Amino acid sequence: MPKTLPLMVQGTSSDAGKSAIATALCRIFAQDGYKTAPFKSQNMALNSYVTLDGKEIGRAQGVQAEAAGILATTDMNPILIKPTRDSESQIVVNGEPYGNMKAFAYRTEFYDEGLRIIEQAYQRLASTYERIVIEGAGSPAEVNLNDRELVNMRVARLTNAPVILVADIERGGVFASLVGTLQLLEPEDRDRVIGVIINRFRGDLTLLQPGLDWFEEYTGKPVLGVVPFIPDLWIDAEDSLILHRYQGQRETPREIDIAVLRYPRISNFTDVDPFFVEPDCRMRFVTRLEELGEPDLIVLPGSKNTLEDLQFLRETGLAAAVNDLHHKGKTYIVGLCGGYQMLGEAIHDPAGVESPLQQLDGLGLIPMITTMEQKKTTVLSRGEAVFAKEKLTVEGYEIHMGQSAYSRNDFPFIQMEGRTEGYCQEERQLIGTYFHGLFHNDHFRTLLLNAIREKKGLPPITDRPSFVALREQGYDLLADTVRRHVKLDTIEEYMKAFQEKEVQI
Q1: 271 and 184 in one domain?
Q2: SS3 376
Q3: Could you say which of 19, 69, 141, 201 is the most buried, measured as most Cβ atoms within 10 Å of its Cβ?
Q4: In this structure, what is the dihedral angle of CA atoms 95, 96, 100, 105, given to the nearest 10 degrees?
């Protein structure tokens, strides 16, 4: 078997575009006939992905595996950090909960174990794949953390990977961020950087060229590419740092108004992405009561700290407003995972699994009580639902610590093998389910939106876009754009040259 060639993508900051560039490279290498896998040693994100065997990894690596045309495994993201409170996170190792840890304890007590886990996972991938696209996190120039980091240059040295440094020109100060990052690296790590990519460029490249020439002369590092901004690229985001990009539709007039409650520990918010491609939907993320109004649809998304996010809804008045809209029959309400739990009568957490709060009353719209448990449910799910007098297949995935028990359930939503799941009372315009990805089911989304249109006296829309097809097209568009604007031949030469050197651990 040919020797594995790794390539690492690092950034000058979070949200610089590392995940997108890594996704493009996964697609490109796969298109070129190489068996390719993504790898991110340690990922901090609240948007996660469930593998075929029911394990949990960061969503970005699941997306990158899809782009590479392979099934995701936990080796592609052996350590996942899911913040539950300030300075405390749930640590997921090889797809399963390891425990909750404070930031200092993770850094001081877990480092050696984490390094062993990372090395073993990478070696398993290297025994199977010809190309491995490695993604860093944040910035490699965090001088206060670099002596015990597990995700940037330590991994580049471990795998002997050449490094591409990515910067986002939309933020401004792109040359300062690139030069500053390079100068703060140790000399041996700076030598490992084979060049830079400037991401999300808009405008006339000739106006940027003097800056590119200056950068190359000043640093001695080549600009490997300037990647233009790609509008309407529907590839799942990694975490809530990207949420500011979701505000573009806030003032756009559309026939259907959708409000998504944005609480502090919102997770898997990509559940609502399909609404952004719908021609009649205006999407808004709502944090304050005065922003809510009277939308046609309210979505309560997932949460990594359901009790404290429920408390947030109560303190802001959003919980009372949702109840009021429900009782007036003005609005469809859909709760997903943690949002589903909030719609129940109460949530108990006697063992402090997510929060020191032991109990809170829910919104009381669904007759169920949820109890948080140490064991996490992570599974790909499929079942038959009935909505708008139609029977349809729905697929999704479940990631939750709580188990919900009904005092009665006269309106089960999804029939699965041997059990029912969720709650759906169409007349009261209320749905709750543990199924993440519910709105990615094109048929269900069409029925729901057309039910809202009918309620408003509007004609149905039957030829709605397929979000799954749009995402697949997005991978190709991203790959084609990077092919046109990045020096892939130069990158390939560096990948081969680095593997001729002795691995430095």
Answers
A1: no
A2: strand
A3: 19
A4: -60
Choosing from 26, 281, 326, 337, the catalytic residue is 337
Catalytic status, residue 337: yes
The parent domain of residue 97 ranges over 5-234+472-502
* Segment 300-324, tens digit of pLDDT: 999 999 999 999 999 999 999 999 9
CA–CA–CA angle 194, 180, 505 (5° rounding): 50
Backbone angles phi, psi at 498, to 5 degrees: -65, -35
- List the end-to-end C-alpha distance of the chain, in Å, as a whole number: 23
Q: What is the mean pLDDT of the chain?
A: 93
Q: Are residues 344 and 427 in the same domain?
A: yes
Please give the Cα distance from 443 to 390 (Å, whole number): 10
Task: Return d(Cα 6, Cα 394) in angstroms, integer.
Answer: 38
**Residue 362 covered by a domain:** yes
Q: What's the CATH number where 414 sits?
A: 3.40.50.880
- Average pLDDT (97-107) is 91
Residues 299 and 173 in one domain: no
- The reply to whether 158 and 302 lie within a common domain is no
Average pLDDT of the segment spanning 339-367: 94
Same domain, 342 and 480: no
Clarify whether 424 is annotated catalytic. no
| 143, part of any domain | yes
Instruction: Indicate whether 249 pLDDT > 60.
Output: no
List the catalytic residue out of 400, 436, 440, 485: 436
Q: How many Å apart are CA 420 and CA 309, to the nearest integer?
A: 27
Which tokens hold the place of 348?
């108990």
Convert the pLDDT of each residue in 130-152 to its tens digit: 999 999 999 999 999 889 999 99
Specify if 127 maps to a domain. Answer: yes
Residue 489: CB atoms within 10 Å? 7
Same domain, 230 and 275: no
Q: Tens digits of per-residue pLDDT, 266-291?
A: 999 899 999 999 999 999 999 999 99
Check: pTM over 0.85? Answer yes or no: yes
**Domains in the chain, number:** 2
Residue 148: inside a domain: yes
Q: Measure the CA–CA gap between 284 and 279, rounded to whole angstroms.
A: 15
